[in-house]
Design brief:
alpha/beta, 14 helices, eight-stranded mixed beta sheet
Length: 291
């Protein structure tokens, strides 16, 4: 992970330092990570992806090596603004997107802005060529948060976050992976450092509010899936109790001619659990969109 950080870059969003990786050559691929981790989630697929794309992967504000201000209005809308600002700085106007978990919702907001064109208040000039989703709460009624997530979201969340220790983190994080496919001890320690660095635990109760945002803005974000003229694919680890098989079925009901790939041996982090399978299905999707 030290090597990952050393090869990163920095820009500023609302005056705050934001870490990102930018490597490779070819069309631009935007990778958006999930909660509560960071861009390092992509490390097992990075070499392959950068062999085919110019890959941009930020640590969203509040995550990883980016700033974690304690008094900040964390929101999906602001994270989308952050990404648009980063891409403008890099003079990028068109991207493919590969997103996971929290990043799925950010991608849905970018998709909604794309659909609005120049009409909406949050309309974006960013062109989207395709969006590939990994496991995440794309449709709120099919999402099943862990108990710790519900606790962080509750009025007790601030205190619970400050009491969260490495042992509790490891226990809950390991539940997100299929048996035998989770991080080893060294990787688990790296993830704990990413989450806890910069007093990250003190803002967990603020970051988790995205679960309420999903419900509040459900019509906008689920509507973006239903109305999209951009090619979409969902690659879903079926063993994920949060957003696995149930989410895939709801996605099929919502998205016309839904393109869904189910990975029976993976859970919530398929790009870490079965990276070769994810890459195979992702590249197949991209090749199909270029026909």
């Amino acid at each position: 992970m030290r090597h990952w950080r050393q090869l990163g870059r920095e820009f500023r969003h609302r005056g705050k330092p934001i870490f990102y990786r930018y490597d490779g050559a070819g069309p631009v691929l935007l990778c958006i990570h999930g909660f509560p981790t960071a861009s390092w989630d992509w490390h097992r697929v990075w070499k392959d992806l950068t062999g085919h794309f110019r890959v941009v992967a930020p640590d969203l504000i509040g995550f990883g090596f980016s700033a974690k201000p304690r008094h900040y209005d964390y929101s999906i809308f602001d994270q989308a603004d952050l990404i648009e600002g980063l891409l403008r700085q890099l003079d990028i106007s068109e991207v493919d997107i590969l997103a996971h978990d929290y990043g799925d919702t950010v991608a849905q907001e970018l998709l909604a802005r794309h659909i609005e064109g120049g009409r909406g208040r949050r309309a974006s000039g960013l062109g989207l060529r395709s969006v590939c989703f990994l496991n995440g709460g794309l449709i709120p009624d099919a999402n099943r948060p862990l108990f710790i997530q519900k606790l962080l979201l509750s009025p007790l969340g601030k205190g619970a976050a400050l009491l969260l220790g490495e042992r509790t983190f490891r226990r809950n994080f390991s539940r997100l992976f299929a048996p035998g496919k989770g991080p080893d001890d060294a990787e688990m320690a790296q993830y704990w450092r990413l989450v806890s660095r910069g007093r990250g635990l003190a803002i967990m109760h603020r970051l988790i509010q995205y679960l309420k945002e999903r419900k509040r803005w459900e019509d906008r974000w689920v509507g973006a899936l239903a109305q999209s003229d951009v090619p979409l694919r969902l690659i879903a680890g079926a063993l994920d109790s949060i957003s696995g098989g149930r989410m895939a079925e709801r996605y099929r009901q919502v998205v016309p001619a839904a393109d869904v790939i189910t990975l029976e041996e993976a859970a919530h982090y398929p790009h870490l659990e079965v990276p070769d399978l994810v890459l195979s299905h992702f590249h197949q999707f991209i090749e199909r969109t270029l026909r």
